[in-house]
Protein backbone atom coordinates (compact mmCIF):
# COMPACT_ATOMS: atom_id res chain seq x y z
CA UNK A 1 0.00 0.00 0.00
CA UNK A 2 1.68 3.18 -1.16
CA UNK A 3 0.86 6.64 0.12
CA UNK A 4 -0.15 9.33 -2.35
CA UNK A 5 2.47 11.89 -1.34
CA UNK A 6 5.61 12.24 0.73
CA UNK A 7 5.62 14.15 3.99
CA UNK A 8 8.40 16.08 5.62
CA UNK A 9 10.47 13.71 7.73
CA UNK A 10 10.70 14.46 11.45
CA UNK A 11 13.80 16.41 12.39
CA UNK A 12 16.55 14.07 13.58
CA UNK A 13 18.96 14.85 16.38
CA UNK A 14 22.51 13.64 16.68
CA UNK A 15 21.48 10.77 18.93
CA UNK A 16 19.06 9.18 16.44
CA UNK A 17 20.10 5.69 15.41
CA UNK A 18 19.63 4.85 11.75
CA UNK A 19 19.60 1.75 9.57
CA UNK A 20 20.21 1.35 5.86
CA UNK A 21 17.70 -0.60 3.82
CA UNK A 22 18.30 -1.97 0.36
CA UNK A 23 14.82 -2.44 -1.08
CA UNK A 24 14.02 -3.99 -4.44
CA UNK A 25 12.33 -1.57 -6.83
CA UNK A 26 11.03 -2.85 -10.13
CA UNK A 27 8.48 -5.06 -11.84
CA UNK A 28 8.24 -8.14 -14.03
CA UNK A 29 10.54 -6.49 -16.59
CA UNK A 30 13.38 -6.09 -14.09
CA UNK A 31 14.62 -3.74 -11.43
CA UNK A 32 17.31 -3.08 -8.85
CA UNK A 33 17.74 -2.35 -5.18
CA UNK A 34 17.58 1.20 -3.88
CA UNK A 35 19.09 2.35 -0.60
CA UNK A 36 17.15 4.23 2.07
CA UNK A 37 18.23 5.51 5.46
CA UNK A 38 15.61 5.06 8.16
CA UNK A 39 15.67 6.27 11.79
CA UNK A 40 15.35 3.38 14.22
CA UNK A 41 13.12 3.44 17.28
CA UNK A 42 12.58 0.82 19.96
CA UNK A 43 10.27 -2.00 18.90
CA UNK A 44 10.42 -1.30 15.16
CA UNK A 45 9.89 -4.07 12.64
CA UNK A 46 10.84 -4.13 8.96
CA UNK A 47 7.31 -3.16 7.93
CA UNK A 48 7.60 -0.01 10.08
CA UNK A 49 10.72 0.94 8.15
CA UNK A 50 8.95 0.38 4.83
CA UNK A 51 6.08 2.58 5.99
CA UNK A 52 8.61 5.29 6.88
CA UNK A 53 10.08 5.01 3.38
CA UNK A 54 6.59 5.32 1.89
CA UNK A 55 5.72 8.34 4.00
CA UNK A 56 8.92 10.34 3.67
CA UNK A 57 11.02 9.09 0.74
CA UNK A 58 9.25 6.94 -1.89
CA UNK A 59 5.44 7.12 -1.79
CA UNK A 60 5.20 4.82 -4.81
CA UNK A 61 6.87 1.88 -3.02
CA UNK A 62 4.50 -1.08 -3.40
CA UNK A 63 4.13 -3.23 -0.28
CA UNK A 64 1.31 -5.66 0.45
CA UNK A 65 0.15 -5.61 4.08
CA UNK A 66 -3.01 -5.59 6.13
CA UNK A 67 -3.12 -6.43 9.85
CA UNK A 68 0.47 -5.74 10.98
CA UNK A 69 -0.09 -8.42 13.62
CA UNK A 70 1.36 -11.52 11.90
CA UNK A 71 -2.12 -12.97 11.34
CA UNK A 72 -3.13 -12.03 7.79
CA UNK A 73 -0.05 -13.35 5.97
CA UNK A 74 0.00 -10.40 3.57
CA UNK A 75 3.43 -8.84 4.15
CA UNK A 76 5.54 -11.83 3.14
CA UNK A 77 8.93 -11.08 1.64
CA UNK A 78 12.59 -11.90 2.06
CA UNK A 79 14.70 -10.10 4.64
CA UNK A 80 18.44 -10.68 4.27
CA UNK A 81 17.61 -13.69 2.09
CA UNK A 82 15.22 -15.36 4.54
CA UNK A 83 11.50 -15.67 3.74
CA UNK A 84 9.85 -13.69 6.53
CA UNK A 85 6.78 -11.76 7.57
CA UNK A 86 7.99 -8.16 7.51
CA UNK A 87 5.63 -7.23 10.34
CA UNK A 88 7.20 -9.88 12.57
CA UNK A 89 10.87 -9.24 11.76
CA UNK A 90 12.19 -6.99 14.51
CA UNK A 91 15.05 -4.62 13.76
CA UNK A 92 16.70 -5.38 17.10
CA UNK A 93 17.12 -8.96 15.88
CA UNK A 94 19.10 -7.80 12.85
CA UNK A 95 22.66 -6.55 12.45
CA UNK A 96 22.06 -2.85 11.79
CA UNK A 97 25.74 -2.21 11.11
CA UNK A 98 25.11 -3.72 7.66
CA UNK A 99 22.46 -2.79 5.08
CA UNK A 100 19.22 -4.76 5.47
CA UNK A 101 18.23 -6.36 2.18
CA UNK A 102 14.46 -6.51 1.50
CA UNK A 103 13.30 -8.47 -1.54
CA UNK A 104 9.99 -9.88 -2.84
CA UNK A 105 9.33 -13.61 -2.59
CA UNK A 106 11.48 -15.33 -5.21
CA UNK A 107 9.13 -18.23 -5.96
CA UNK A 108 6.31 -16.09 -7.37
CA UNK A 109 6.17 -13.60 -10.28
CA UNK A 110 6.81 -9.98 -9.36
CA UNK A 111 3.98 -7.51 -9.86
CA UNK A 112 5.82 -4.46 -8.57
CA UNK A 113 8.49 -3.82 -5.94
CA UNK A 114 7.75 -6.13 -2.99
CA UNK A 115 4.38 -7.35 -4.26
CA UNK A 116 4.22 -10.76 -5.95
CA UNK A 117 1.49 -12.67 -7.75
CA UNK A 118 0.50 -15.61 -5.53
CA UNK A 119 -2.67 -16.50 -7.47
CA UNK A 120 -1.22 -19.88 -8.49
CA UNK A 121 -1.82 -21.04 -4.93
CA UNK A 122 -5.54 -20.35 -5.15
CA UNK A 123 -5.81 -22.19 -8.44
CA UNK A 124 -4.14 -25.20 -6.82
CA UNK A 125 -6.59 -25.06 -3.93
CA UNK A 126 -9.53 -25.36 -6.32
CA UNK A 127 -8.31 -28.79 -7.46
CA UNK A 128 -8.37 -30.32 -3.96
CA UNK A 129 -11.51 -32.28 -3.12
CA UNK A 130 -13.09 -30.55 -0.12
CA UNK A 131 -14.24 -32.19 3.09
CA UNK A 132 -16.45 -35.14 2.22
CA UNK A 133 -18.65 -36.47 5.06
CA UNK A 134 -20.14 -39.96 5.17
CA UNK A 135 -23.15 -40.69 2.97
CA UNK A 136 -25.28 -41.35 6.04
CA UNK A 137 -24.58 -37.85 7.26
CA UNK A 138 -25.57 -37.50 10.91
CA UNK A 139 -25.54 -34.39 13.04
CA UNK A 140 -24.30 -36.52 15.92
CA UNK A 141 -20.57 -36.83 15.14
CA UNK A 142 -18.57 -38.42 17.91
CA UNK A 143 -14.86 -39.14 17.91
CA UNK A 144 -11.85 -39.01 20.18
CA UNK A 145 -10.29 -35.71 21.25
CA UNK A 146 -6.89 -36.67 19.82
CA UNK A 147 -8.61 -37.17 16.44
CA UNK A 148 -9.77 -33.56 16.70
CA UNK A 149 -6.43 -32.22 17.90
CA UNK A 150 -4.30 -33.80 15.19
CA UNK A 151 -5.62 -31.87 12.16
CA UNK A 152 -6.39 -28.78 14.27
CA UNK A 153 -2.74 -27.70 14.10
CA UNK A 154 -3.05 -27.23 10.35
CA UNK A 155 -5.95 -24.82 10.79
CA UNK A 156 -3.50 -22.23 12.15
CA UNK A 157 -2.10 -21.61 8.65
CA UNK A 158 -2.43 -17.93 7.68
CA UNK A 159 -1.50 -18.53 4.03
CA UNK A 160 1.53 -16.28 4.07
CA UNK A 161 3.07 -18.72 1.55
CA UNK A 162 6.51 -18.43 3.12
CA UNK A 163 6.70 -22.23 3.12
CA UNK A 164 5.96 -22.18 -0.61
CA UNK A 165 8.61 -19.53 -1.11
CA UNK A 166 11.38 -21.40 0.72
CA UNK A 167 10.56 -24.82 -0.79
CA UNK A 168 13.44 -25.58 -3.16
CA UNK A 169 11.22 -27.77 -5.37
CA UNK A 170 9.20 -24.65 -6.21
CA UNK A 171 11.86 -21.99 -5.63
CA UNK A 172 14.88 -23.45 -7.39
CA UNK A 173 13.38 -26.01 -9.74
CA UNK A 174 10.04 -24.33 -10.57
CA UNK A 175 8.12 -27.60 -10.36
CA UNK A 176 4.72 -25.99 -9.86
CA UNK A 177 3.17 -28.32 -12.43
CA UNK A 178 4.28 -31.38 -10.48
CA UNK A 179 4.34 -30.37 -6.80
CA UNK A 180 1.71 -28.49 -4.82
CA UNK A 181 4.09 -27.34 -2.09
CA UNK A 182 3.99 -27.43 1.72
CA UNK A 183 0.95 -25.21 2.21
CA UNK A 184 -1.29 -27.55 0.23
CA UNK A 185 0.22 -30.64 1.81
CA UNK A 186 -1.05 -29.13 5.06
CA UNK A 187 -4.57 -28.85 3.67
CA UNK A 188 -4.47 -32.36 2.23
CA UNK A 189 -3.24 -33.70 5.56
CA UNK A 190 -6.00 -31.90 7.45
CA UNK A 191 -8.58 -33.57 5.22
CA UNK A 192 -6.93 -37.00 5.25
CA UNK A 193 -6.70 -36.97 9.04
CA UNK A 194 -10.24 -35.77 9.67
CA UNK A 195 -12.07 -38.71 11.31
CA UNK A 196 -15.31 -38.02 9.42
CA UNK A 197 -13.86 -37.47 5.94
CA UNK A 198 -14.52 -40.33 3.54
CA UNK A 199 -12.78 -39.21 0.33
CA UNK A 200 -9.85 -41.22 -1.02
CA UNK A 201 -7.21 -38.64 -1.95
CA UNK A 202 -4.15 -40.93 -1.85
CA UNK A 203 -3.89 -41.32 -5.66
CA UNK A 204 -4.27 -37.54 -6.01
CA UNK A 205 -1.61 -36.89 -3.35
CA UNK A 206 0.81 -39.23 -5.10
CA UNK A 207 0.26 -38.20 -8.71
CA UNK A 208 -1.20 -34.70 -8.94
CA UNK A 209 0.06 -33.13 -5.71
CA UNK A 210 3.44 -34.84 -6.08
CA UNK A 211 4.21 -35.54 -2.42
CA UNK A 212 7.13 -37.74 -3.50
CA UNK A 213 9.09 -34.71 -4.70
CA UNK A 214 9.52 -33.43 -1.13
CA UNK A 215 12.82 -34.64 0.35
CA UNK A 216 11.91 -33.48 3.89
CA UNK A 217 14.60 -30.83 4.43
CA UNK A 218 12.19 -29.12 6.87
CA UNK A 219 12.96 -25.66 5.51
CA UNK A 220 9.21 -25.00 5.32
CA UNK A 221 8.81 -25.74 9.02
CA UNK A 222 11.66 -23.36 9.86
CA UNK A 223 10.00 -20.32 8.26
CA UNK A 224 6.39 -20.96 9.36
CA UNK A 225 5.28 -18.00 11.56
CA UNK A 226 2.64 -20.22 13.21
CA UNK A 227 5.27 -22.87 14.03
CA UNK A 228 3.30 -25.63 12.32
CA UNK A 229 5.37 -28.81 12.10
CA UNK A 230 4.68 -29.09 8.39
CA UNK A 231 7.19 -31.80 7.58
CA UNK A 232 6.82 -34.05 10.61
CA UNK A 233 3.07 -33.82 11.11
CA UNK A 234 1.76 -33.37 7.55
CA UNK A 235 4.14 -34.33 4.76
CA UNK A 236 5.75 -37.42 6.30
CA UNK A 237 2.37 -38.96 7.28
CA UNK A 238 1.13 -38.35 3.73
CA UNK A 239 4.24 -40.03 2.34
CA UNK A 240 3.62 -42.99 4.65
CA UNK A 241 0.06 -43.37 3.37
CA UNK A 242 1.28 -43.34 -0.22
CA UNK A 243 3.94 -45.95 0.59
CA UNK A 244 1.37 -48.15 2.34
CA UNK A 245 -0.91 -47.99 -0.69
CA UNK A 246 1.59 -48.42 -3.50
CA UNK A 247 4.92 -49.78 -2.27
CA UNK A 248 4.38 -51.93 0.84
CA UNK A 249 4.33 -55.58 -0.41
CA UNK A 250 2.30 -56.83 2.55
CA UNK A 251 -0.35 -54.14 2.10
CA UNK A 252 -0.43 -54.91 -1.62
CA UNK A 253 -0.95 -58.62 -0.86
CA UNK A 254 -3.74 -57.95 1.64
CA UNK A 255 -5.43 -55.63 -0.82
CA UNK A 256 -5.29 -58.29 -3.52
CA UNK A 257 -6.97 -60.72 -1.12
CA UNK A 258 -9.66 -58.17 -0.41
CA UNK A 259 -8.91 -57.76 3.30
CA UNK A 260 -8.34 -54.01 2.86
CA UNK A 261 -9.45 -51.57 0.22
Description:
The protein is an alpha+beta fold. The chain has 2 domains: 17-115, Ubiquitin-like (UB roll) (Roll), CATH 3.10.20; 119-257, Alpha-helical ferredoxin (Fumarate Reductase Iron-sulfur Protein, Chain B, domain 2). Helix content is 32%, strand content 15%. The strands form 2 sheets. A 5-stranded mixed beta sheet has the order 2-1-5-3-4. The chain has a two-stranded antiparallel ribbon with strand order 6-7. A hairpin with a 2-residue loop joins strand 1 and strand 2. Helix 6 packs across helix 9 (230-246). The longest helix has 17 residues, at 230-246. The N and C termini lie far apart (52 Å).
CATH class of the largest domain: Mainly Alpha
* Tally of individual helices: 10
- Relative helix content: 25-40%
Let me know the average pLDDT: 92
Largest sheet: 5 strands, mixed
Strand order of the largest sheet: 2-1-5-3-4
C-alpha Rg (nearest Å): 22 Å
> What is the approximate shape?
elongated
Give the CATH superfamily of the largest domain: Alpha-helical ferredoxin
Which key phrases capture this entry?
261 residues, Ubiquitin-like (UB roll), Fumarate Reductase Iron-sulfur Protein, Chain B, domain 2, 2 domains, two-stranded antiparallel sheet, 10 helices, 32% helix, elongated
How would you summarize what this structure contains?
The chain has 261 residues and is of the alpha+beta class. Helices cover 32% and strands 15% of the residues.
Write the layout of secondary structure elements.
Layout: E1 17-27, E2 30-40, H1 46-56, E3 76-79, E4 82-85, E5 100-103, E6 110-112, E7 115-116, H2 119-126, H3 145-152, H4 162-166, H5 168-171, H6 182-192, H7 202-207, H8 219-223, H9 230-246, H10 249-257
Parallel strand pairs: 1-5
Antiparallel strand pairs: 1-2, 3-4, 3-5, 6-7
Helix pairs in contact: 6-9
Amino acid sequence: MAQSATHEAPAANGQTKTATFRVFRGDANGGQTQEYTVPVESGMVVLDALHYIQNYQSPDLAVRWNCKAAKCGSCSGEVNGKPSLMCKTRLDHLDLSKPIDVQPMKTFPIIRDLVTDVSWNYEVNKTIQPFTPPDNNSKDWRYYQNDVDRPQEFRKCIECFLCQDVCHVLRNHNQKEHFYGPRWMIRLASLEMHPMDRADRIPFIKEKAGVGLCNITKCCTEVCPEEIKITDNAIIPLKERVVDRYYDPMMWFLRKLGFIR
